[in-house]
Amino acid sequence: SYELTQPPSVSVSPGQTARITCSGDALPKKYAYWYQQKSGQAPVLVIYEDIKRPSRIPERFSGSSSGTVATLTISGAQAEDEADYYCYSTDNSGNQRVFGGGTKLTVL
Amino acid sequence: EVQLVESGGGLVKPGGSLRLSCAASGFTFSSYSMNWVRQAPGKGLEWVSSITSTSTSMKYADSVRGRFTISRDNAKSLLHLQMNSLRAEDTAVYYCAREEADKFYTWFDPWGQGTRVTVSS
User: Fold this and answer.
1) Which of the residues A70, A98, B35, B50 has an alpha carbon 20 to 30 A from that of B72?
2) pLDDT in tens, chain B (121 residues)
3) Is A81 helix (H, G, I), strand (E, B) or coil?
4) Do the Cβ atoms of A88 and B107 come within 8 Å?
5) How far apart are CA A33 and CA B36, in angstroms?
């Protein structure tokens, strides 16, 4: 079955840039999507189609993709950005809908 | 404002059944495909099932196929998930999520707040 691989945790100091990666064999042909999930809350979309940001999401959130790796970048991370972040995509056929294992971002 | 409100969760014994519902408002429900996504305690997200806007196609994760059935009532803006033969590993928070689409690509936005299902004797 198809898998997306994320680092379990990333830690940065306030104001630093946080980068969270997502690896998957189909990412050269399939978009990556990123969700933020704060403790006890539902996931919220922060990036779609690799690089697009919903209007309600702060500009410090950005996405990129190169080859088999998609990256979520938070420029100038703030304490309020502490959350679990999940990437989402599909396999090449589009039949398997898969989330990465999640990355816990700590800002301290 | 788009709202998705899940209900129907609770405690059920292994082998039992449960029916989840998701009430949608703030958008034209009948125009969107809908999904269920679950999250086991302390674990990541797992897509469970999807249904097209007119119920012409339903898809399921391998882990629930043959046990769960997704359905919808467009007249009432309701999404359902009938869960039978429940197992301990089905214990999770179940989220309903609207499916957004751009050509061949789809994603989930927004999500409801979830309803908790616990399968235990």
Assistant:
1) A98
2) 999 999 999 999 999 999 999 999 999 999 999 999 999 999 999 999 999 999 999 999 999 999 999 999 999 999 999 999 999 999 999 999 999 998 889 999 999 999 999 999 9
3) helix
4) yes
5) 17
Distance to chain B for A76, nearest Cα, Å: 25
Nearest to B29 by CA among B6, B4, B49: B4
Strands (E), chain B: 3-7, 10-12, 18-25, 34-39, 45-51, 58-60, 68-73, 78-83, 92-102, 105-111, 115-119
The edge-to-edge listing of strands for the beta sheet with A69-74 is A18-23, A69-74, A61-66
Residue A4 token pair: 């997306």
> Beta partners for A21?
A71
| Ramachandran category for residue A49: left, alpha or beta (phi over 0 → left; psi -120 to 50 → alpha) | left
d(CA B21, CA A10): 36
d(CA B59, CA B81) in angstroms, rounded, equals: 12
Q: Which residues of A touch B109 (CB under 8 A)?
A: 45, 48, 54
Instruction: Tell me the average pLDDT across A23-36.
Output: 97
